[in-house]
Amino acid sequence: MSRDLLIENPKDGTLLVLIPEGEFLAGKTKFPVRLPAFYLALHPVTNGQYQRFVEESVHHTEWKPAAAPEHPAVNVSWDDAQQYCRWAGLRLPTELEWEKGARWVDGREYPWGEEWEEGKCRNSKNRGSEQGGVWSYAEGSSGWGPYQMSGNVWEWCEDWYESKAYERYKQRDLSQPGKGSGRVLRGGSWCSDYPAPSAARFDATPLLQAGTSASASGAPGLKLPFAALPFYPLPGERSEPGRNSLERG
């Protein structure tokens, strides 16, 4: 069944691009992982979108936008992100989905290629006084199309952080950790000297809103996916990969 390459979520206007089913190279050692198809947001949730969520849901009412409406929403905890997802009919990406969205199929070091290029993302050397708008740094987009998978704002993932999770994934067991030291953050921020390579993993307490440690400097934002199931897409649901998902095809 063919799927639209680009869709718009009717609740919050998020634009999502199709990440097709198939393998990509994951982790620092670049081992193959096969995931079902899913949709991933083209850019982080904006201040304008998050403000509407706050007003309609009466959640996180103390939140105030840190910049213009088209800039990414920050000072958002993992728990806040989950509430936004429920309101919008979306969900956070799994860690592996986020990584595939950032690394294309070839396991590239950064969303744009193998070499660090300062001008292709928002970082401490070019940040100015605030985060960049969500459509800035188009030349740093990933091969699939999503913007700012490196730099600008940290991005929450659904998973608990488990230090040895990738050892299990490498053995074709893609089940998510049932517990961990915190929730996964990926991508780096505008405060990072060299925003993290796409394989780098970080963790933070789910209650974290603004960075307070070396593993999460800068304010977390959120990027949301919309899952595509085998026959039709449903908001907020996911086809579980399972142990055999690496063995098909």
Q: Can you describe what's shown?
A:
The chain has 249 residues and is an alpha+beta fold. It has a single domain (6-246), classed as paralog of FGE (formylglycine-generating enzyme). It is built from four helices and ten strands, in the order E-E-E-E-E-H-H-H-E-H-E-E-E-E. It has helices spanning 47-57, 78-88, 95-103, 165-170; strands spanning 6-8, 15-19, 22-26, 31-35, 38-41, 154-160, 183-186, 202-204, 220-222, 225-227. The strands form three sheets. The protein has a four-stranded antiparallel β-sheet, covered by helices on one side. The relative contact order is 0.21. Mean pLDDT is 82; it is low at 210-218 and 227-249.
What average pLDDT do the residues reach?
A: 82
Q: What is the N-to-C succession of helices and strands?
A: EEEEEHHHEHEEEE
Shape: globular
Class of secondary structure makeup: alpha+beta
The CATH architecture can be given as Alpha-Beta Complex
Please indicate the percent range of residues in DSSP E strands (runs of 2 or more).
15-25%
Main beta-sheet annotation? 4 strands, antiparallel
User: Any low-confidence stretches, pLDDT <50, length ≥5?
Assistant: 210-218, 227-249
CATH superfamily: paralog of FGE (formylglycine-generating enzyme)
Specify Rg, calculated over alpha carbons: 17 Å
CATH class: Alpha Beta
Number of strands: 10
**First-to-last CA distance:** 17 Å
CATH domain fold name: paralog of FGE (formylglycine-generating enzyme)
H/I helix tally: 4
